[in-house]
Helix-turn-helix domain-containing protein
Amino acid sequence: MALLESDVPIREVVTTDPEKAKALENDVRAKILDMLAEEEMTIEGIHEELQRRGEDKAETTARHHVNVLKDAEMVEIARLEEAGGGTRKYYKSNTRVFSYDLPEGADESLTGTQATATEELESLVETLYTEHGDEIEAVAREMKPCEYCETQYYEEFVLRELLNQALIDLSETGGLEDVFGEND
């Protein structure tokens, strides 16, 4: 006889590649990504802003964290400037990390919205599979490390990446601002 039996539903899905996950293991790097999402900064500027935010780290440590993020392709050099016989590098984040919690009671407030989103997404997923299922499955097959790895949800991952990229595209082209602006 079991002491506890519970149907545990999936409540969250986190998708990222292992290199990015490793880069995000340190909360200082998340702060750096947040800083660089808004403006490009030099290592010196990053160091100063980290100190302002209560992170008393050496400038070499800030440089190390930026290099880890750069190696994970989450930060890029945005601009180079000549400076005192050398070159000053300005970094910018190409990755947005949302590390928020919804307020208490949001689940209840958003129940109808969630139902609409689920219904609309089901229709979109059906359309994507009808029109592009072969491409989605081909990419998913390339991801599988072995023929027995059916439990890895590769097709779902590809769909999530497609939807995520579509949201990024809308954000970058101003499409989300247009929608959100209509409600102001």
Notes: Residues 123-175 form one domain.
